[in-house]
Each structure stands twice: as structure tokens, then as C-alpha cells.
Fold this sequence. Notes:
Elements: E1 18-22, E2 31-36, E3 41-45, H1 47-54, H2 61-71, H3 78-90, H4 98-104, H5 113-122, E4 123-129, H6 132-138, H7 148-167, H8 169-174, H9 182-209, E5 217-222, E6 225-230, H10 241-268, H11 273-293, H12 301-310, H13 315-332, H14 344-375, H15 378-406, H16 415-432, E7 436-447, E8 450-454, E9 459-463, E10 471-472, E11 477-482, H17 484-505, H18 511-515, H19 519-539, E12 542-544, E13 549-554, E14 563-564, E15 569-574, E16 579-586, E17 598-603, E18 611-618, E19 641-643, E20 649-651, E21 655-664, E22 673-684, H20 686-701
Antiparallel strand pairs: 1-2, 2-3, 4-5, 5-6, 7-16, 7-22, 8-15, 9-11, 9-14, 10-13, 11-12, 13-15, 16-21, 17-18, 17-22, 18-21, 19-20
Helix pairs in contact: 3-4, 7-10, 9-10, 9-11, 10-11, 10-12, 13-14, 13-16, 14-15, 17-19
Amino acid sequence: xxxxxKPFNLPPLRQELAIYPAPSAADGSxxxxxxxxxxxxxxxxNWQAFEILSRWDLGRSDLVVGALARETTLTxxxxxxxxxxxxxxxSYLVETKGSIRALAGLRAMRVxxxxxxxxxxxxxxxxxxxxxxxxxxxxxxVTFMYSQWFLTLALAAAVLALYVISRQxxxxxxxxxxxxTWEGIAATAVAVSIAKxxxxxxxxxxxxxxxxxIPAMGxxxxxxxxxxxxxxxxxxxxxxxxxxxxxGAAGMATxxxxxxxxxxxxxxxxxxxxxxxxxxxxxxxxxxTLLLNASxxxxxxxxxxxxxxLGIANLHARxxxxxxxxxREILFGFDDPPPEPMPDxxxxxxxxxxxxxxxxxxxxFLGIAILVYRYFFKMxxxxxxxxxxxxxxxxxxxxxxxxxxDLRFRMKLNYTIFRxxxxxxxxxxxxxxxxxxxxxxxxxxxxxxxxxxxxxxxxEVVEEPAQGRGRVRAGDVLVVxxxxxxxxxxxxxxxxxxxxxxxxxxxxxNEEALAVGEVLRHRFEETKANxxxxxxxxxxxxxxxxxxxxxxTRNDEIRPGLFIPAREQLYVLVDPAENKVxxxxxxxxxxxxxxxNKATFIPDGAGFGTFTxxxxxxxxxxxxxxxxxxxxxxxxxxxxxxxxxxxxxRPLQPVFRVRLASCDPPGVPALRxxxxxxxxxxRRSAMAGFLQRIYDVILRESNF
Length: 704
């Protein structure tokens, strides 16, 4: 901040600068606009700044102070004039800079090539057209579009078009299918180009109508995303606020008119490419105009319309100043005056508006950063994502916190500081102290030993000794099958094995056989192994219980003489003496768990009680697919997952299986029990968990 009390010389203003009357401010005070034609920039001046600049040619600050004291009711100090001088110097509006740099003790900040590159990546313009001559020749031909009768006719056409579409709603709705085709994608791109070109010419023609010059039209790249733009900076010369509103709304009005025309074209055109294009143009114009351009939270048409409607120039910057001021007062109670005089209703609006804009921009810029990361190859994507996060989200927060540090000497013990300290302490207690010593995870309880029996080949049921039995002992036969396909393979394998055995045994007596060396031995070993495998499969056709257990499920359709297909389930046998619980833990929590930790399993269903267990095993590799569909999100489960084309359920985040055993009570329910496992773990604060998740994401995405 500049602190001066002595008179000083004023640097001369640039000769081409001009000052124009501007609409009144929100509080009713008069304002003026300072125009820099070289940079085509406009600056709003209040009464004090206007009176000071009107007497700038006096050359010295003391002369300006004296003149203002004699000729106006203003009380101006050398410090006020020094602030104006500093503003002029920083905005390059003076012819010499040395006096002000020495006066304010400033040094010119040179922008590095790296910063220039980053700024150009985030935002840069490419002028393509100087439309002034085109507008001079064209504007007079569309003056009728600004008449009252044309507006009435357009509104009537829009209402009638909506009515006609409502009578053909089924046909109109089914036309949406065009967006799913390559033809529709191409038509959408063409429609958006036409609509946005018309949008920009709407701004240009309206501004030209009110006497403003349009120096350029072209493409602006916002984070490498191309958008059309029109240079309408001279609109700030207009004193009539309604004319400014008209220029701001002209783009959207043009698109809406185009949409009405396209809607009528869709009604009358026959089916074909032209009708499809008209449909895309109509629907695209309606949606994009209302959702994108009408938003006041970014510097699009809605922002300028709202700014002119309220009479508050630089709406975002001024609302942000009020938002920061309010935040500092709430946190520290400096009792500073507001950034500028403003009616109470306007001040409250600007405070609320600033926080809505910040929240909106946070999610928009975060989405853009993620999109940029996904769009480019990984290394460049990481760099650009970091630039986005720092420039738009982290840097503003850092600057504000740094301002708090600079203001720490003004902080005095008061009720506001005490309240902020209590809130900070509560935050530390809740988020920074490691309270959490328990992990909850979705889990499934089942028998520790469970065996399913399936038909490996198409088979015939010969007999079923276990029919009607609820419990069997180890070695008991459950069902006997016969498979003609397997029997045929066994017979073939026996013939091949017998032949290769004979060839090997008679090799010493045959010179040709001796010449092939070990080939006959390898062939015999291969056929023998094939026969042994098939005979084992054949023996499995007599299915025996591998352990003492209960028959959990039985295929009720099987009976002697029935032919069943391959992979048909016949029985499920469980051991009721011991149970197990499989808990599915997020990868970020895995390091907090150790084998032997206590755990609790709570089934979802009522009446089963609670099971006390211990951690018996922890998988070293995350699950590639979930074997329990009921725990996956596509089946209303808690684990985010999706089904792939092969039918496997793939988790959307790293999930590890943690086996819980030695559960008490040891009984096993008749069916699998879905529930929640609570596992004792190392204590960790909520903030540490949040940072751990961020680290895991960075580690995962950095894996090339």
C-alpha cells in the first residue's frame, strides 16, 4: 500500500486516452469510462477518480488537491492521488514510468517464458476476421429485426412451433435417435458451428447498430477448447444500460430465432438429411443457449447481462472482493469497512453470489482438469492437470491464506477470534486426531468348507443314493452318472496307450524304431498321462462326499435315466461345523489391518445375532472380479463395480479379500449371509484417510 504525504510530480497521461460518461452505479452515483484505444481496454471511474484525472494536467499532486478543495466538495489527499497514479502506471496509461516506480518503490515484474506459455495454454485468441466493412454493408438490411412487430411475430412463431411439435411429439421424440449415429454427430458439429456463428454476429450487428466498432472476430481457445468470440469492448462506451443489455442478449436471441426457424423447417421438410439437420439445429440451439450462455457464473452472455441489469461493472471481481471481506470479518473480526460503498441489499447479494460462483467454478474447473488429463497422453495430461488445479483452484486459496498471514499483526483477541479458534479446534479434534480404529467393509459369511458338484460332461443319471438325505459322511456316494462321450474318449485313450506301449517295448528289435530315439518314449508317456486323466474324470462320475457335511442344495430335477448337460449343478455340500467370513476391503485401508486382529460380523438379516472373529488371511493381490454378485453395485450392493462383456463383475476400485475365521458362535446358517464386517485396525484420522486416498489415486494414475 502506498503511504505518501509529500507533494510529487504527476506523470503525463497518454494523449490518446478518452473519458466517456457511463451509466450510474448501483448506489446511484455517477460513473465514467476511461478508454485505452491502443489496448482496447475500458476502466470504470468513480466521481473522485474522474475529478482527479480531470485536473491531472496541473502536473503536481498539491495543485490537484488545492483545485479539488476549491472547486468541489471532495476531500482528497496526496495518498489518494498516489493510488490513482499507481493504477495508471500499472495499467500503462502514462507516458513515463520512472517517477511512479521510484515513488511507490515498485519494480517491473517480468513475465517468464514459462508463465507466458501457461497463460497462452489456458486462454488465447486467434483473430480471423475484421467485420467492420461487412457490418457497415449488412446492418441496414436487418433493422426490421429490432422492431416491436418483429419481436411479436417471433414470439408467436415460437409458441405456435411448440404447439405443432406437441401434436407430433412421438415423431419428434424418435428423431432423437439421430444423435446416436455418425451422421448425427456430424450434423451436431455443423449445427453448433452455424448456431455459434449466428450468435456472434448477433452481438456484432447489435453493437454496430448502437455505434460501437467491432475490431475483430475469431476463435478463443479456453484450455485448448475452441470457441468463437466477438470483440465488443466498445459497448462500455454506451451510456444507456438498456442498449448494453440488448448487445449482451443479442447472441442468445439470434440463436433462439434460428432455433424457431429450424423447428419450422423440421415441420415442413420431408424425411432426409435436411430435416435431420434442421432437427439437430433446433434442439442444439435451444439447449446450449439456455444452459451455457445464460449462466452468469462464467464470463459468458449471462454474466454481462446480469452485470448491466444490476449496473455493477466487473461483477465477478467486485463480488469476490466482498466475499473475501466477509470471510475475513467472519473469521477475524477486523471491523474493516466494505470494499466499496454499496446498498445493503446489493452487498448481501454480492457476498452470496461470490460463493455460488466459487462453488460453481470449483466443479467446472475440476471437471475440465480431469477432462484435460484424460484427453492427452499420460505425462502431458498430468502436467496440464496440475496446471489447471494450481491456476484455477489452489492458487486463489493460497493467495487468500497468504493474505491472512500478512494480516496476522492486526488480529486481536475478540469474540470473533475466539469463535474461529473454537471452530479450528473442533476441526482438529474431528478431522486431525486419529479417532478411527475400526474399518467397516461389506462381507459374506459361508461355511469354511463348501463343495459344489457339477457334471463335467453330458451325462445320464444312473442312480442317486443320497436322495432324500440331509446329511452324509465322508466317502458316501451322492450320485452316479454315465457319460457315453467320456467312455468313448477313455476307450480311444486305452487303444492309443496300448499301441504306444507295444511300440516302445518292441523298439529294441526294430531298426527303424531305434532311429527315432526317445520319440516313442515321449509318445507313450503322453498317451499314458492322457489315459490317467480321463480315467480320473471317469471315476468322478461316481460323486462322493469329500467330508462329513450337510446337503445345502440339490437339483430337484435329477432322477435315474435323466440326461443332463455339461456344467449342470447337482449338489452343494457344506460342513456345518465351521464358518468363514470374506470381507472386501478398499485398498487404501488394507495397510491398517494385520493378521490376528479382532473383527465382528453383523448379518443384514435380523435374528442371526453377531459373530466375533479374527483376521486369518489377507490377499496380496486385489480382486480382478467379484464372485459375490449381491455385493456389487449393479445388484444393489455396496461395492462399486460394473459387468464386462464376458459377464464378469469388475470392481471400479482396488478391493482386497480379507478372510475372517474362528468366528463365535461357530454355527453355519443354511444360506450365505450378506452383512458388514467391523475390523479392528490402526488408528487414523479422517484427514489422513483423505490424503491417503489422494495419494492412492496419484500413484495409480502415475503408473505408466
